[in-house]
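Technical annex B. To support the medicinal chemistry partners, we prepared a structural model of the target in complex with acetyl coenzyme *A, based solely on the information shown next.
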Amino acid sequence: MVQVSAGLEGVIAAATVLSDVDGQAGRLTIRGWAVEELAGRARFEDAVHLLLDGFFDDLPADLAPALGQARVRAFAEVAALDGALAAREPYDAMRALLARLPDGDSLRDALTLIAAPAVFTAAALRRRQGQEAIAPDPALSHAADFLRMIRGTTSTEGEARALDAYLVTVCDHGLNASTFAARVAASTRAGLASAVLAGLSTLKGPLHGGAPGPVIDTLDAIGAADNAVPWLEAALDAGERLMGFGHRIYRVRDPRADALKAALSRLSKSAGALPGRLALAEAVERAALDILRRRKPDRPLETNVEFYTALLLEALGLPPQAFTCVFAAGRTAGWIAHAREQQASGKLIRPQSVYVGPRPRAAA
Ligand code: ACO
């Protein structure tokens, strides 16, 4: 009897120097850095450099100017954001624009792809509201420029740091579903844009990168701490999953949740905002964890990255339709590094299936 590993659970499909997810200890290491450390001190540009180091010969020591120029290159495609595309969900509009980028393998191609989700997301959000897209300012940091292109005003240093912390926290995470998809595409020797598009399409679903929008829906529907227990119990009775909880690998708390909670607390101190929302979220989190422990005693279900993603991005004034786009803006760096690593291995990814369909028909 052939054993099928549903969802490839437990299957090791790549060796990587990029990141390590220790699900028992609740640790994420990104190229030798604990995620909490990296998120507290690195700009997104530094994390991109860390990930791409060794995968391109011509990587400059400071990536900020090159990433700024890459935003300008990506912005040239915003002209294709017509009314029909602007009416789609921002994620779909961003993905359609990204498909227009060259499918090459150079550092220039890689940086354009890493810069593009921020540029296209900002343009799609503005056009949806009937506003003009704002051109990038290559002199700004990626995070500060991302916020400026969305809002049209300069962000505070605290806000840019909070977005940096988010983008760094999610820049890579082992062989998650979207990274695996990117590696599969790269293994066929398709270009980097194809790998990113495979990753983008896989990130979209609510079991992966699409969860933080529904976290906000949950908080809005619960409304007040006293409603948390009955609301959550009713959702589970109806067979729903609680968004922002559970993970394939982590059996303890997702360390990224704490990295983002720390960023959120720094932001709320500098902006003087959010205590009410945070108090509600903490009450919902406590109630959800209690209920999940009671109802699923055999399956440790803890808070995952998406719960605090939702709170942090909301505190930055971003609308829920933008959350998965912003996730992609961070994770694209990881997809590109993994695609390069897969290309270097030279091996096509091609698993097997076991046939359980009807036997061949006998010849008449
Ligand atoms: N709420 C309620 N029950 C859950 C949840 C949840 N959030 N997560 C898992 N379970 C239950 C399942 O119903 C199942 O129970 P059963 O055995 O009684 O049927 C059991 O736990 C195992 O679930 P699986 O789907 O087999 O576990 P898997 O490892 O495939 O799931 C996943 C991981 C998809 C993330 C899951 O926990 C989930 O759906 N979470 C909610 C969505 C979410 O937050 N996604 C973001 C994940 S982080 C990221 O991708 C960046």
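Notes passed to the chemistry partners:
Residues 95 and 184 are 18 Å apart (CA to CA).
Strands lie at 19-22, 27-30, 33-34.
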